[in-house]
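Lab meeting, item 3. Inverse folding demo.
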């Protein structure tokens, strides 16, 4: 988790923390572009690899 996400954050309970963590993971994997993946999101990058593997198997 990025420091700016959790710095100064307070959570009422474990369920609240889990909910916030889930939201961040969705953002991180589905919406946030990653420089190491040539600007793709991890979800998009994984989809291209899955398609390439499936194509190679047929």
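The presenter then showed the designed sequence:
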């Amino acid at each position: 988790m990025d420091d700016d996400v959790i710095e100064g954050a307070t959570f009422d309970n474990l369920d609240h923390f889990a909910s916030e963590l889930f939201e961040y993971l969705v953002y991180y994997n589905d919406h946030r572009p990653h420089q190491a993946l040539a600007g793709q999101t991890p979800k998009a990058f994984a989809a291209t690899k899955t398609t390439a593997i499936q194509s190679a198997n047929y």
